[in-house]
Amino acid sequence: MEPHMSIERDRRQVFSWCMYDWANSAFATTVMAGFFPILFKKYWSTGLDVNLSTFVLGLANSIAGVIVAVSAPILGAIADRGSNRKRFLIFFTYLGVLATSMLFLLEKGQWLESSVFYGLGIIGFSGGMIFYDSLLPQVAGAKKIDYVSGLGYAFGYLGGGILFLVNVLMTQRPQWFGLQDATEGARYSFLTVGVWWAIFTIPLMLWVKEEKGAGASKGNSVVAGFKRVCLTFHKVRRLRMTFIFLTAYWFYIDGVDTIIRMAVDFGMSIGFSSTDLILALLITQFVGFPSAIFFGKLGERWNVKRSIIIGVVVYLLVTLYGMTMTRRFEFYILAAVIGLVQGGVQALSRSFYSRLIPPGQEAEFYGFYNMLGKFAAILGPALMGIVGIVVVGMGYSQDTASRSGIGSIVILFIIGGVLLYLTDERRGAADAHVLEE
Predict the structure, then answer these.
(1) Structure confidence at residue 209 (pLDDT)
(2) For 273, what's the count of Cα atoms within 13 Å in the CB-facing half-sphere?
(3) pTM for the model
(4) 355 three-state secondary structure
(5) Cβ–Cβ under 8 Å, residues 153 and 159
(6) Rounded CA gap, 48 and 192, in Å?
(7) CA-to-CA distance for 324 and 408, rounded, in angstroms?
(8) 3-206+220-434 CATH, one of 3.40.47.10, 1.25.40.10, 1.20.1250.20, 2.40.50.90
(9) Residues lower than pLDDT 50 in the chain
(10) Cα dist. 104→114, 186, 193, 354 in Å?
């Protein structure tokens, strides 16, 4: 193959891989961060106490997280063994597409049904990300992995932001789309997410090539996967720096995911309007697009670990300030600040981890990576809801309870940041290559 043809193929693979972030970020933005918490609070959970609805929303996130977390390392090992990463990715993607589209059909008061379909959507979204992440090293290569990881998140911010803007207009100007009101616009937005997610996954299906790993076999991949995951637990225990990083990641990404999933619920609980919150989310999306690219370049040219630590510290300060904010413009400022670091923390964590794992075992080890991320997402939303209920039970106001709930997330950033600081990249990379099979 001629060199220029190889370069074009590589570029097409990178573009197709990034387009999956463009596709599935619509779920993260419109559904998880945007309209589901609002519609759940105002429409599907009609009649439930405000603290109980927050608890149910956190519980739905947590249960879905448990399912993904428990299955992630086993599925990753199976995918590595049989070179089936793309097949698993496609399965989880279209599970998420179907569940998200079903939310369009639900009527007022159906809080249980909406929670179930929302949970299935999270399973599809999170499950797909395991195998999407595991394709990064072979798509990007070692030299460009930080930049390509950041580029993927940038595509996600832009794609998710564009559809979210359309969805916002569907709720703010429903007559433009032939809809009756904002509620109908929000319900139709779930359907548009399903279609968007399904269509823009196609480039990855067609053009991202999956290389057969050393563990590929025509034998029973399921049995081999279960055996290999036990071996992986043993490997992680031996890879000290990998273990420390995974623990750090577990804590700080918990705070990041909790803010993504619960920020709108928090804002509504302390008295902001849904319009204010939606605008803040749009600010985060469009600030996040160039910032994710910038962080990718920063990690490539400066220091990946220090770049992540900067982002974690910013999150900590934002959380502390968020406990005290009372005015609308403050929420907008915090949204912009989060947009500056959110994609960078996520993208560089993903690429930093690739340096600490044995080559050829990416899906297996990214299964652990995503498992810890999902176990973290179990703790954060549940912690926020439980703290709120406890504080109200102690006789404090709803406002104080909501602010205490968001404040409980600070400890996660502190622990995660300290452990990340203790992670030695060079030692971790050396240990990982020693364990390469």
Answers:
(1) 86
(2) 6
(3) 0.76
(4) coil
(5) no
(6) 28
(7) 13
(8) 1.20.1250.20
(9) 1-5, 214-219
(10) 10, 9, 10, 38
